[in-house]
Give the backbone structure.
Amino acid sequence: MGNGQSQGNRKRAEEESTEGASIPSFISPVPTDVGCSQYDVFLSFRGTDTRKAFTDHLYHSLIKAGTVPICVFRDDNSIPIGEEFDSQILDAIARSKNSIPIISENYASSKWCLRELIHIMDCKKSKSHIVLPIFYKVDPSDVRYLKGRFGEAFHSCKKRFDEKDIQEGQRALREVSGLHGWESEKVANGHEGELVEKVVEKILSELRQDFQLDVTKHLVGIGDHLNKIRNWVDAPARVARMIGIYGMGGIGKTTLAKQIRDVHVGGLWALSKSRN
């Protein structure tokens, strides 16, 4: 193969690998017994459409939301060219609790975006993976039936796709178009700031569900422990404080944390950790 042809193939590979897919650019502190094994949110988006605008605003709003940082997986253009790219992306999706595919006009023109979406929808079927699509300046019906500019972008590029990507990509697009999400032009008359706020609020709500614990209303012996912590929390302070409940497994750390959270609903997060 000539040098000119080789350079041309490399350039095309770079365009495919860096403009459509996502890699981790923020990892929040997590307990050491868990490590960085999970992400709270996976953002799937077409870089040329939204990377520097809507997706960037959403990303920064997510990582700043709440008392405990949200771990978000998104594109920062640093995965090397090659097969490792694909495996890292798919693995990150599988290890994410929520996926937000930002379906923009040129989303389906990227085979990497399609592969992300295929895996996202497969994860939704096989485990408790929540998919919250944002139809960014596109109509869900155009996504379902590949019409309008969205359809034109897909058809103009599908000659570069594998047949498997085409068939499974169309299936994933039909499925995601049927999910309840947000249409950017219909939220607050197209004001993106309010859309970002609604998405962040929904993610926080979903993450709090992970912390829910069915606890009886009348627990014996928890009152003294609860009162001690409540008195400390209620004391005036100029800075934010974090409560850590530490001890061996099975002594009621999560139960105590749940009770504290139910009493102090104004943005308090309580974390518990077992002692090794």
User: Anything to note?
Assistant: DSSP finds eleven helices and nine strands in the chain. The first helix runs from residue 3 to 19. Residues 3-209 form a domain with the Rossmann fold fold (CATH 3.40.50.10140). The chain has two domains: 3-209, 223-274.
